């Protein structure tokens, strides 16, 4: 945890700011791998990892829930496939990362937890697509999605750790 929160209002403010930042990051993310459908770095997932580090598992899942839901509403992305892939990926990744953080924290670095989160995100999104389309041809795409999920989880984990360390440094000087 970053600090002991003296009031619930301060904690709520931080969590709200993380949700808002996640929505903004989702809007601003460039389609780096636009030539590969469904592949993105997922910069908005940084806020779920930061929520996990700052507040704990339940708060990280809460951040993912509101970030994906509100982000979809604000974007106007209420297309069922877009919404459910985003929602399922964000919630499943946050839940898996929260479980690892809670029960196996000593066995994984935050980068390792984030890699598993990236893979979990893409797996959940893939399963939603399979459930909706019932197209078995997508199974051939799964290894590529899992690889890029791990790669993006690695990037998100490194960035999250850097940001978290900087936040701790800044907090010490205040």
Number of helices: 6
Rg, Å, rounded: 16 Å
Major sheet = none
Shape: globular
Share of β-strand residues = under 5%
Give the tally of structural domains. 1
The residue-averaged pLDDT reads: 88
* Class based on secondary structure composition and strand pairing: mainly alpha
**Low-confidence blocks of residues:** none
Number of E-state strands: 0
Element pattern in H and E? HHHHHH
- Gap between N and C termini, in Å? 17 Å
Percent range for helical residues?
over 70%
CATH class: Mainly Alpha
Instruction: Briefly note the CATH topology name.
Output: Arp2/3 complex 21 kDa subunit ARPC3
Would you identify the CATH architecture? Orthogonal Bundle
Give structural attributes.
single chain, 174 residues, mainly alpha, Arp2/3 complex 21 kDa subunit ARPC3, 6 helices, 75% helix, 0% strand
What's the helix and strand layout?
Blueprint: H1 8-28, H2 45-54, H3 57-75, H4 80-104, H5 110-133, H6 142-173
Helix pairs in contact: 1-2, 1-3, 2-3, 2-4, 2-6, 3-4, 4-5, 5-6
